[in-house]
Amino acid sequence: MNLAAEADQESPKELEELALSAGADPVEFLTGSLSHPNPKFFIGQGKLEELRELVHMHDAKLVIFNHALSPAQERNIEREIQCRVLDRTGLILDIFAQRARTHEGKLQVELAQLDHMSTRLVRGWTHLERQKGGIGLRGPGETQLETDRRLLRARMKSIHKRLEKVRKQRDQGRRSRMRAEVPTLSLVGYTNAGKSTLFNALTTSEVYAADQLFATLDPTLRRIEVEDIGQAILADTVGFIRHLPHKLVEAFRATLQETIEATLLLHVIDSHDDDRHDHVAEVENVLREIGADEVPVLEVYNKIDLIEGRKPRIDRDEEGNPIRVWLSAVSGEGHDLLFQAVNELLADDVFHDNVSLQPHEGQFRARLYESGAVLSEQVDEKGSIILEVRMQKKDMLQLLSRLGMSRERCFPAEVNPW
What we know:
alpha/beta; Rossmann fold
């Protein structure tokens, strides 16, 4: 069931993909235009009757609405059409429940499901309204409904505590990476844009990747080598989607923290998708919601192998900085350009200069060679050794400190990075 104002039509194609990802077998789409939802049924009486006839004709077992329904609306529609009703939030929650693989992911999904369920506990049977009685149980007691709510609240509190423990562990890992000044590159993007495929190609990992929505739920981190930058962390994260339920954003906040505190976001976009501009806007909305809109972004237009004549390239802004890379995660075209762009964006922290060494500074020379930072060497007319050195500023400063040498040895006061 796909219903919206003409200016805000939802994509029937996306609803079909969501349904297929959940394991459903769609048989009919019912669309319409409605400026103001009906408080009781969400849809009008005419559309409700049409829906009832379609359910009877196909002997349907489930009706999915591509919108968020209130608990009362769900129950009212089910009562009228005699068929189970699921809204968009419930559908996405079901997909997440199927996809979660790690203990943390399962906890996050369960928390979101319990939060969603808490508003849908109703007195569906007469025995739920009877108070407990009998020997030792007389008195005010509580209804079965109240018991269910109490147990549900206790379970949610328990999950919150366990997720808080996970969050602290993640924070500890991030702090250690920050102390070591290891940059983090976080892959973000609309679901099914090809983030996990690109992640696997860049890291030679085997993270689960499939042509379906929300193939990845659990964050995966791997170390990669970036020329001039050295080691970096690449993080694969959950895909975003239009109207991503707020409950899921809250439940996955510990996971999305990798995005918030990243050094650079790689926004993966399906260049072959006709709705890519809308998807970009939705991803930007979610980034704003989680507080990651201030993190620098490099757009990665993926799947150019599906576009005839499209070649890998780097698009730049007026100042010559990379803003967009066109590549194919599957074929490998443009991967070198992605590393080049990342290198340029993070290279502000790279030391690249000539270093003049005296004969007694052999240990400094040896250490520079050990780190692989020497690009060339020559001797001037005075007998001084001139090394062309390229390495991260932090590594140079650490080396100077270990050798007991002054920072001004390589960083004159006027350009001292500290």
